[in-house]
């Protein structure tokens, strides 16, 4: 084989050939030389036995591995062509160097044979040919001038320009392309365009499609890579330069970096998405996964984490806390990456402030960026991150004033340079998230507080209500609903004044307007109507809440005083009844009752009781002052008093507009009743009123049971006074209704009409008559 190589060297077609020789040992030291070999050396004095050949021929520096390969027989030949030297006389010498090996049975005796051929004549000839070629090129100077002009245009272009052949090999690039992608021209020329464009095949298919349609393709947005493996988004316009030979077309690419624009759009969208998530989320736990996903997807990151010292930010941590233990409580990752092992390790990892990326962000209270997490020195997660293909990382604190709530961290498969604008934006988003969390914490606390108060209100015995400024119910408690009998559905459509008793309407409206004016009302008494029409009397306090000076809700707490008022009324009535009885009893009986309060079993003379009630006073009372009303009643009762004195009867004024007369002469009672009707008619005519009078009369014997009634309030319903009052209350306006006892005493002297039977409490049915006149 060695001889074949030598034959190939010496029999190459060329000019007459001249060779010089060097023989080297396995340490590249000169063993033997030919006579004229020094003239080809860079340092001729170093060409001597025992000297390292690299001292005289620096071309061998860096070829040690090749020389060793030839020594070991792994390579037969190595040649260096066109090496030039400048002699002392300024003449140039050119040479080709051939290196072959000579193996011996002993490896230590292997030699390198270096043959140096003088190719000066050939090189001079080549230079002459080059000169002639240059002269020929001068003939096409016009074309070259145009080419130079175009080169200058291309060089000055702000957009990147690349020219490739039909197979995608780069033939030309301009300065803007070199600057954009970080390569120099030599690093790009003859390289496939996939060196800078991720989807080369897809790009070529698109270009071929446009070519077949004879269209100029524009705005092809492609993901590209810089020399530093950073990702760019470039919008290309492409065209095909046709050649005479099909298949040899060139493709021209003109691209503009739109990464900044894309980042701006992505960040705007991310801010919008996060704002929307925060506005629509009902809880912190609902919002956080969506925020992690939104940031990753809108900004092109692959994995997001939330680190907190508490389970899902249950409470805030003071700014001076340095003893927190950070744990990952939420992770979102893209489906295009496999991070199962990395996530498993992350769930089990904890950090203290100042340790690793989450800990450093926690202690610094500011966003932080890492170009490549695998070089961060995180003993727990750097290696798993590298295995998962994760590199760039950044994070930011969820910070509100001096309270830090957590840390969000994001990872990318790309190695990315620090983006200050992105970190600044994320700092703002962290504050926005913190405000949302604080607001939700306050809302949760408020809900919890409201639930406590609602439980308190719902279990309270008092009636509690909230009413807006227009009078519609906003809230009532259980005691309110149970007392008044309305359902929640009915209450939602009710107004406060729908259930206020008519007698209290005007008074309550006035108090309601005073309340809306800012006055606080205490010990207010009112009456509500239940669903079944019953009247419930209430007493309580009411206040009004104002927002920006406007009333928004009134709050009232009432106590049901119906039974208290009823008991008070019964007691008052009993006291009046006792007083009336004492007034109608003979003086001997009164004296005996004072001396001996027990029952007295004696019979006495007949007693007749008249009750009269003015109808119509209640209707006009709301439009009159108290003094006017008193004067009006005095006018009426003065007429009644005069009649009573004329007939020698006992008069007793009772509550409000009622009038009572008692006596032992039933006929006198009947006559005064008829005159009272005439007195009312005369009063109406003189005062332009429309009052009516309703009169009830009952007669009976004051005996054992009556005297017992004075001392036993439980028997008051059985006495003749109560019967007379009940007969009056069940009577007819402008009519005199009498019981059968009275009728029997008067029927021979007076005219009557039988009315029928009425139900008297405690007495059953009683027959009544209407007194219409005297015979």
TrEMBL record:
<protein>
    <submittedName>
        <fullName>PAS domain S-box protein</fullName>
    </submittedName>
</protein>
<dbReference type="GO" id="GO:0000166">
    <property type="term" value="F:nucleotide binding"/>
</dbReference>
<feature type="domain" description="PAS">
    <location>
        <begin position="146"/>
        <end position="191"/>
    </location>
</feature>
<keyword id="KW-0547">Nucleotide-binding</keyword>
<keyword id="KW-0472">Membrane</keyword>
<dbReference type="InterPro" id="IPR029787">
    <property type="entry name" value="Nucleotide_cyclase"/>
</dbReference>
<dbReference type="GO" id="GO:0004016">
    <property type="term" value="F:adenylate cyclase activity"/>
</dbReference>
<dbReference type="InterPro" id="IPR003018">
    <property type="entry name" value="GAF"/>
</dbReference>
<dbReference type="Pfam" id="PF00211">
    <property type="entry name" value="Guanylate_cyc"/>
</dbReference>
<dbReference type="InterPro" id="IPR029016">
    <property type="entry name" value="GAF-like_dom_sf"/>
</dbReference>
<dbReference type="GO" id="GO:0001653">
    <property type="term" value="F:peptide receptor activity"/>
</dbReference>
<dbReference type="InterPro" id="IPR013767">
    <property type="entry name" value="PAS_fold"/>
</dbReference>
<dbReference type="InterPro" id="IPR050401">
    <property type="entry name" value="Cyclic_nucleotide_synthase"/>
</dbReference>
<feature type="domain" description="Guanylate cyclase">
    <location>
        <begin position="608"/>
        <end position="728"/>
    </location>
</feature>
<dbReference type="InterPro" id="IPR035965">
    <property type="entry name" value="PAS-like_dom_sf"/>
</dbReference>
<dbReference type="Pfam" id="PF13426">
    <property type="entry name" value="PAS_9"/>
</dbReference>
<feature type="domain" description="PAS">
    <location>
        <begin position="449"/>
        <end position="519"/>
    </location>
</feature>
<keyword id="KW-0812">Transmembrane</keyword>
<dbReference type="GO" id="GO:0005886">
    <property type="term" value="C:plasma membrane"/>
</dbReference>
<keyword id="KW-1133">Transmembrane helix</keyword>
<dbReference type="InterPro" id="IPR000014">
    <property type="entry name" value="PAS"/>
</dbReference>
<dbReference type="InterPro" id="IPR001054">
    <property type="entry name" value="A/G_cyclase"/>
</dbReference>
<dbReference type="GO" id="GO:0006355">
    <property type="term" value="P:regulation of DNA-templated transcription"/>
</dbReference>
<dbReference type="Pfam" id="PF00989">
    <property type="entry name" value="PAS"/>
</dbReference>
<dbReference type="GO" id="GO:0007168">
    <property type="term" value="P:receptor guanylyl cyclase signaling pathway"/>
</dbReference>
<dbReference type="GO" id="GO:0035556">
    <property type="term" value="P:intracellular signal transduction"/>
</dbReference>
<dbReference type="GO" id="GO:0004383">
    <property type="term" value="F:guanylate cyclase activity"/>
</dbReference>
<dbReference type="Pfam" id="PF13185">
    <property type="entry name" value="GAF_2"/>
</dbReference>
<keyword id="KW-0456">Lyase</keyword>
